[in-house]
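To close the chapter, one final illustration. This time we ask the reader to focus less on the individual chains and more on the assembly as a whole: which components sit near each other, and how the overall shape emerges from the parts.
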Amino acid sequence: MKMGVVTFPGSNCDYDCYRAVKDALGAEAVYLWHRDHDLQGVDAVFLPGGFSYGDYLRAGAIAALSPLMREVKAFAAAGGPVAGICNGFQILCEAGLLPGALVRNRSLKFRSRPVHLLVERADTAFTSEYEAGQVLEVPIAHGEGCYFADPALLDGLEANGQVVFRYCTEDGLVAPAANPNGSARAIAGIINAEGNVLGMMPHPERAVEPLLGSTDGIGLFRSLAAHLARV
Amino acid sequence: MTDFRVEVRVTPRRGILDPQGSAVQGALRSLGFGEVGEVHVGRLIVFTLAAADEGEAEGRVDAMCRQLLANPVTEDYDVRVEALAAA
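The assembled structure is written out below.
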């Protein structure tokens, strides 16, 4: 089982993600270079956090057009699991692999702190090690993480069960005060209709060891490993 | 072929919350410019382009806007194309 972490110019969570896969999960991890056209036979792809291409134009807009994204799109179209974290989520939206967009935080402030997430779906390839309704503590670090989509699209996401994580209080209450960026319907993470492309603003790879303050993020990596072992 | 000067103005889609515009509005009003109404902050992209005529230039730029320069989910764009005087 081999998981790939894409490095774009300006990625800065690629090592965190690599370490989460290699050390916390104990699976094989490889870096994938944005300019190559080679996924190196990986079974899953992570698009990590950071500020790819300096967030020029819009966060994720330029990275979405980088050479390797052609392979990532083909991999996703063939059912391969792809997870975008933070900047990776922005890239997936810009690439059209996930619907909607991520815009400037309503507060206009860069938010870097732990948040609580309500697990809405525990039956996906990325969340099977969690339970629906479980509350996770995972950090966020972003300035443009406000999820936006028009009401019809939001209704569609809800109806299809594509909302995977929502911001919530420590007790699991979805409330405006617990929404760190003004995201529509407190959406922190969504999945595509086919169930193989996940995007989320919070950083599970930064919550995989006690030293990091939380181990709640490791479930995502374990879920993906369990999924890959099944297919 | 003619060279054209192109300006693309990208603004947050009307009706979408624009916190940056609101912040600038508040700052202007605090400076005493109470007459200021709705404010939006966008970006201006300027480039030159070679095309057979103005219609072709506009068509090409529109395609660029849809594919890259503006996000169709959150932004509106406005294109101005002007022929450059022959050198």
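Chain A touches chain B at residues 57-58, 61, 65, 93-94, 100-101, 103-108, 148-150, 182 (CB under 8 Å). Chain A is about 25% helix and 25% strand. With these observations in hand, you are ready for the problems at the end of the chapter.
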